Amino acid sequence: MTTFEEYKAKVSIAQVAEAIGFEFDKSKGKTQPTYTRTDANGDKEQIVIRNPNDNANQHYFDRNYKGGDVINFIKEHLNEFAQFTGNSTNDYVKINMVLSHFADIPYTPKIETVQKAQEHKELDRSRYVEVTPTTSNLMYLTRERALDPLTVEKFLPYITLLQDTASKGNFTNVAFPYRKPGSEEVTNYEIRNHGFKGMAAGGDKENSAWIATNADTKATVKNVIFFESAIDAMSFYELKKGYYKLADTAFVSVGGYVSPNQIKNVLNEFPNARVSTAYDKDVNGHLYDVLTYAVAIGKDIRVTKDDNTFNFKWDNKSIKIPQEELTLNRFKDESGLKHRFGTVFKAAGEAKDFNEQLQHVRAEQKEQSQSKGIKV
Question: Which of 10, 161, 195, 366 could form a disulfide with 103 if both were Cys (CB 3.0 to 4.6 A apart)?
Answer without folding.
Answer: 10
